[in-house]
Structure formats: C-alpha cells, structure tokens
Amino acid sequence: MEKINLSILEKMPLLDLEVVLEIEPLAPLSMVSELPGSYYKTLKSPDKKMLCGLFENILGWHICLIDRNMIVQELIKTRKKQNLDYIKNVKGSTFTPLLMEYFEINLKVIPSSLFFDDLWSKAYRRADAIVHPKGTFNISYNIIPSKRELQRNEKNPKQIEDKAMEKFFKNNLGQFPQYYSSPTGREYVQLNGRYQYKLTIDTELFTLLQEKLKCENIGYIGNSEGWVDIKLRKL
Fold it and tell me: Which regions of the chain are under pLDDT 50?
C-alpha cells in the first residue's frame, strides 16, 4: 500500500503562484454544500471546500473522519507555533478538508448550464429500528423460511407484525444487508463547456498535484458519479 505523504501540512502555507484550473465534467454534476433534507440541491459551480476534496483525492489522501480530526488537532498546534490561526471548516458535509490554507480562488468562469432533477439512491442504516428490515429488498436465503412463519399483522395479513419483524431483525442482523436504499430527489447540472478557476496556490501543492496529474487527471466532484477531467497550469 502506498504511504500518504502529509509533510506539506507541516510548512507554513505560502500562496506564491498563480495558476489556472480547468475542470471539464464528464457527467452531470450534483454538488451539495449544505446538509440536505429530502431534496439535494446542487451548486452552480464547485466551492472551495469541494476543490479541496478534489485536490486531496488527486493526491490519494483517502483518510477517514477520525484520523482527519486527529490531524486537525496537530495542525492547530503547528499553526499556533507559526503564529497563524487555523480555521476549521465544518460547514456543510462531515468532510474535514486539510488543504484549505494552501490555495485561494481569485476568479472563476462558469459556462452556460442546464439544471434538472433525478432520483438518486441514498443508502441508509437503521440497525435499531423496524425501518431497516422493511426497507431492504434482499435477505439471506437461510432465514426466508423462518421469516414466512412470523406473526402476521391483524389488519393486513400480507404484512408481518412490526414487533415480530423487529425482534426477527435484531436476532439475525448478519443475515440482512448493512444498508437499505431509498430514492431521493437530487438536482444535477449539465455544463456546456468547462469551469475555469484562477487560483493563488502554494508552489509545493502545485508541484504535488502536477506530478499526480501526469499519470491520472480524472477525479470526481459532488458525489462518486460526478467524474471530471482536470487540467492545472501556471499563468
């Protein structure tokens, strides 16, 4: 497994290079910045936090939330020694970016676009509720005969009584899928062209990104379906 090099985080951010970032969507994008309810509304263009996620994916920084929070605690100490204030970016999703200090957006160009709604399958897990077994379409074949023998609902004999189903579910957690899916309304944007960003960036970060982009210039924005082609060049 390739080791993740986070040494850039130890240095003081220095925004000393102007570059142009071009992002060409290869599929419709859905970029949700706020915590959604029953509807996922997209931004018109990626914000700084999303660009940060894009950069970290390019660098291979696939780090879980617990480890990210530990890194942030060390960053706060490091920035204090450097006489800098560290601003933790917690707005929106649970994603905790690590490279926000190493670039700034100065200008962005957004081409014409088309917005549309579609259904998106969202994964849920409710291990302590009756909702989960009712939401799953599949279970292990081993427990199908036992499920058929469960007590039926008096008002609707086609359905299993809730208490019986809940008890059955808790006694057979390993035989049910870990998640069930639910169709959710989500907004997408289809671009007629590409995004162009003028950035001021730390030279070391630019160099790291350039090295990775030589081998692989495909990433994603918004969700795992939002594939994009990326180009980064000096002004």
Answer: none
